[in-house]
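Field log, afternoon session.

UNIT: design team B
ACTIVITY: writing a sequence onto a fixed backbone
BACKBONE:
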């Protein structure tokens, strides 16, 4: 059974253009700023649904195209992913650090925290979400081990379990947001609500991108094609998202 791109339908590198980066960025743009603005600023559910729906499809298409190119073309420079991924992770760390630094300054600057207007936020749900996300990292690692030993069927099964757990986590975020919004707790309620929705939303966007990457790797794998470098990169990214959640949960919910 073929499991690596370098042994099946791989073409030599040649200069060409790709619409994958444009679609990926456009999808993120529609899903995040456009959909969020439509919902929270303009209170227009129609535009929110359109932007979120179109953005999700475009984002997944961009990621899928990028993965397909990686599976079917020999890269001009070998080993670029192993260098680029840590740089990307470090850049993401600094973005999250900036958000946390802003939160810490607000948190320490208030005599009473959370500020007036903040409803009771139950700590059980984020605890459950933590267990779910940690479990997804374990299943993701198990899938990697299966692939390492040439068990593509086992890889697919554990990879799909990781996707399901990630989707459940994202569903918990949506459920919590919906509950709080119905309590009139929105980003403009107070300083805490602004930080809460910004940080949890930014993390949720990373979960969404991770799920897109998971699916993009899974689809060709179901047909017998996969790439160990892709799997490793997606796995490392997912573990990063998992680690960041510990900071999100501990700071936003428990401090």
């Amino acid at each position: 059974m073929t499991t690596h791109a370098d042994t099946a339908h791989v073409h030599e590198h040649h200069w060409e253009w790709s619409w994958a980066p444009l679609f990926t960025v456009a999808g993120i743009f529609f899903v995040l700023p456009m959909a969020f603005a439509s919902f929270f600023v303009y209170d227009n559910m129609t535009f929110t649904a359109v932007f979120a729906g179109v953005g999700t499809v475009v984002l997944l298409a961009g990621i899928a195209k990028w993965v397909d190119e990686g599976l079917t073309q020999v890269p001009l420079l070998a080993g670029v992913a192993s260098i680029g991924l840590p740089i990307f992770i470090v850049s993401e760390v600094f973005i999250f650090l900036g958000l946390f630094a802003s939160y810490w300054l607000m948190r320490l600057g208030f005599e009473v925290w959370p500020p007036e207007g903040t409803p009771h936020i139950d700590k059980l749900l984020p605890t459950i979400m933590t267990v779910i996300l940690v479990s997804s990292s374990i299943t993701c690692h198990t899938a990697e081990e299966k692939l390492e030993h040439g068990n593509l069927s086992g890889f697919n099964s554990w990879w799909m379990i990781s996707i399901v757990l990630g989707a459940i986590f994202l569903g918990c975020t949506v459920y919590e947001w919906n509950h709080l919004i119905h309590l009139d707790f929105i980003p403009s309620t107070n300083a805490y609500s602004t930080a809460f929705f910004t940080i949890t939303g930014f993390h949720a966007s990373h979960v969404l991108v991770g799920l897109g990457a998971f699916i993009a790797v899974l689809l060709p794998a179901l047909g017998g094609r996969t790439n160990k470098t892709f799997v490793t990169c997606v796995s490392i990214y997912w573990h990063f998202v998992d680690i960041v959640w510990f900071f999100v949960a501990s700071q936003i919910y428990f401090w």
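LOG NOTE: The chain has two domains: 1-78, 81-255.
NEXT ACTIVITY: expression trials, pending approval
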